[in-house]
Amino acid sequence: MKLQVAMDVLTTDAALELAAKVAPYVDIIELGTPLIKAEGLRAVTAIKAAHPDKTVFADLKTMDAGELEADLAFTAGADLVTVLGTAGDSTIVGAVAAATKHGKGVVVDLIGVADKVSRAREVTKLGAVFVEMHAGLDEQAEPGFSLSTLLNQGETARVPFSLAGGVSVATIASVQRAGARVAVAGGAIYGAEDPAAAAAALRAAII
């Protein structure tokens, strides 16, 4: 299982500083949606230039103009981009077309999708390299949220998936047992007093 850091910081400088600390322990460096909205795709270019050996993940959360937005991100240096699972099939197909042209990949983020299992299977057939079983920060703060729900959905879908939303040293073993291809850690790394040590601990917890 691969480890992905989600960098929900707001400046390119902060992203470069965080990435430099955690890069030795992660496989995928994700530029969060707030960062891309604040800094634009220049942040993607900067991270890829600094870490050419890492997979750079641009969390665009595209909802429309899939081919255009994906093409922009891939041209800027992204290796993976996200399209929302609530987007129309044609948007996903367009993004996949751009990915094929660049030799890159599309991840479909299932945040906000009611039937994640069915949609995961549908978008995999459309060409997504994997889906993201994702509970956002707002959902995680709601009463009754449980990581086990996402894990069960990932296991049931039986398609390649990542898991984002509550990944920590305490939960990462269960994420791996569920069969996730990628564990996505955000706050557990960037919110830690020592992000490098936090990333190293997560890496060590992966069997």
Give a quick set of tags describing it.
3-hexulose-6-phosphate synthase; 8-stranded parallel β-barrel; alpha/beta; carbohydrate metabolism; 11 helices; 207 residues; 20% strand; 48% helix; 3-hexulose-6-phosphate_synth; globular
Radius of gyration: 16 Å
Order of helices and strands: EHEHHEHEHEHEHHEHEHH
| Distance between the first and last residues' Cα | 8 Å
Q: What share of residues are in beta strands?
A: 15-25%
Strand order of the largest sheet: 1-2-3-4-5-6-7-8
Mean pLDDT: 96
Low-confidence stretches: none
The computed structural class is alpha/beta
Report the principal-axis shape. Answer: globular
Biggest sheet record? 8 strands, parallel, barrel
Assembly classification = single chain
Helix amount, in percent?
40-55%
The number of helices is 11
How many strand units?
8
Pathway: One-carbon metabolism; formaldehyde assimilation via RuMP pathway; D-fructose 6-phosphate from D-ribulose 5-phosphate and formaldehyde: step 1/2
Keywords: Carbohydrate metabolism, Lyase
Family: Belongs to the HPS/KGPDC family. HPS subfamily.
Protein name: 3-hexulose-6-phosphate synthase
Summarize the structure.
The protein has 207 residues and is an alpha/beta fold. The chain has 11 helices and 8 strands.
Describe the overall structure:
This protein has 207 residues and is an alpha/beta fold. Helices cover 48% and strands 20% of the residues. It has an eight-stranded parallel β-barrel, surrounded by eight helices. α1 (12-22) runs parallel beside α3 and α4 runs parallel beside α5 (89-102). The N and C termini lie close together (8 Å). The model has no long low-confidence stretch (mean pLDDT 96).
